[in-house]
Amino acid sequence: MSEAQKPTLSQQQLTHSNWFISWFDSPYYHILYKERNYREAQVFMDNLTHYLNLPERAKVLDLACGKGRHAIYLNQLGYDVLGVDLSENSVNIARKNENESLHFRVHDMRIPFEEKYDAIFNLFTSFGYFENETDNLTTLIAIKESLSEYGFGVIDFMNATQVIANLVAAEIKTVDDIDFHIKRFHIDGYIYKEIDFEVDGQKFHFTEKVRALTLADFQELMDEAGIYLLDIFGDYKLKKFHKTESDRLIMIFK
User: Fold this and answer.
1) pLDDT tens-digit profile of 195-215?
2) What is the rounded CA–CA span in Å between residue 200 and residue 214?
3) Integer angstrom CA distances of residue 43 from 14, 151, 237, 245, 247
């Protein structure tokens, strides 16, 4: 792809108030998802770093790191890790764990880094949120441009085919005495999650919207970005990917 063909970000795109900016920065987001499986995340990082055979003290970028659960463990494995996220609140929480080889900062994943990394991880379906679909391609190009010559990129995404087939239309999840009323549906290539709850008499409503990207969609984007898809896995134990059965779509590329 020539320089002229690369999509670029306008300042308006960068400052646009997308749904994920307000929701991911909300304290209620962290309450709803507080019970994520940290042991599962560690097993995934063990398997992934072993598969990639990363060099000692490799420079790793955790792209859309949230509160840093993967980045912190990667650092404990001996890697030099930078975790970045668009949510300032999440980054501030993660920064409590900083040391000489672990750092966090606010960053938009559509913008490449000057520094090059041995591995860039985009984990736990932290892709496909943008209103403008060209931003998905922009993000992939930014990842490619931020990798070292021998570096690997990893995207851990939901298996959209399996998720749509097993979508739970409605449920109530109670966390910290807050009843989160959750509705899910699939429209026009996106998976939506409507979240309603009430705290101290005040009603809140948030919407999660993620592009239901399939393996074929990613392959098309990667071809356009000049990225080479090397391997595909279907779960955190790195088992073979099955379109209708696998929980995850984990892609290794460079």
Assistant:
1) 999 999 999 999 999 999 999
2) 41
3) 34, 21, 7, 20, 15
